[in-house]
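Folded chain entry —
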Amino acid sequence: MKAPLLIAAPVAALLSMVLGVVVILSPGDSASGMPACIPAATTTALDVHLDRQQLSVAATVIAVGKQHDVPPRGWVVALAAGMQESGLRPLPYGDRDSVGVFQQRTSWGPLSERLAPRSAAVMFFTGGHAGQPGLLDIDGWAAMPVTEAAQAVQVSAYPDAYAKWEPVATRLVAQLSHLDARCDAAADGSGGSWTFPLGDAPYVDTAGFGDCGAHWADCHTGQDFAAPIGTPVMAAGDGVVTFAGWAGPYGNAIHVLHSGGTATWYAHLSRIDIRPGQRVHAGQLIGLVGDTGNTTGPHLHFEVRTGASHSSDGTPIDPLPWLHSHGIK
């Protein structure tokens, strides 16, 4: 169909599947039944008309994302990459040995896998056969601009090209998934709610912020809450996990970046239940209290930092006044 087709929401998605067309609304438009909280695009949306094959590929990418626990922001990144690389088509040709929806080269995997939208999407999210990183391997991808996250996987000669497809990808997710997704706080700037990281579990305040002594190379940068090993540790607020792993004297640690450049750190854990790049919500289980790293007994070392970003740890502040100012503790 060559002429532009204007379809009223919320039946646009249903008719698009019948007519082979999808209508992409501008980010400022609203439609009943469509999620209002998928992170807004930063560029003007395009009226792009997609045929049945393109819609089928988009639906496959979203389905693979769901199966691998990729949050909706990741589906947007993948669809934007697919639009730029192939127009969301499993092309049997490309630059040199590149083929498929994501124009993956020979080292990514067998030709059959690169050509099949489902297996190509799996590789985009989880990585190639020769160790190429997938989206889930990119630290902090969920709070990156879409074009930066896509480029981290694709390593394209045109790193800024993905940005123009973000509006299209955003609305494809809305129309094909019907998901009322929560925006990530670090991506959309919303404050969200806050909670105490040990919930209602019993604990004892021990070492406080600014304490100095032989236990620390520098003065203490957080607040310690003594609790039994295995006590659940929860995210204090909505955000993106920027680090999860071994951190020397911190032991097993997690860093979460929240809106406004606030970060919370959780240290000495016995178990980590999330991964870098994952979006978490206030009260979500992220790990268990432990006794790893430089400790004198099991406890949660909790830090709050301001001026944080993916490239900066920020500046630690006293967690107790911060908790009080957010109605916690």
About this structure: The chain has two domains: 12-181, 204-325.
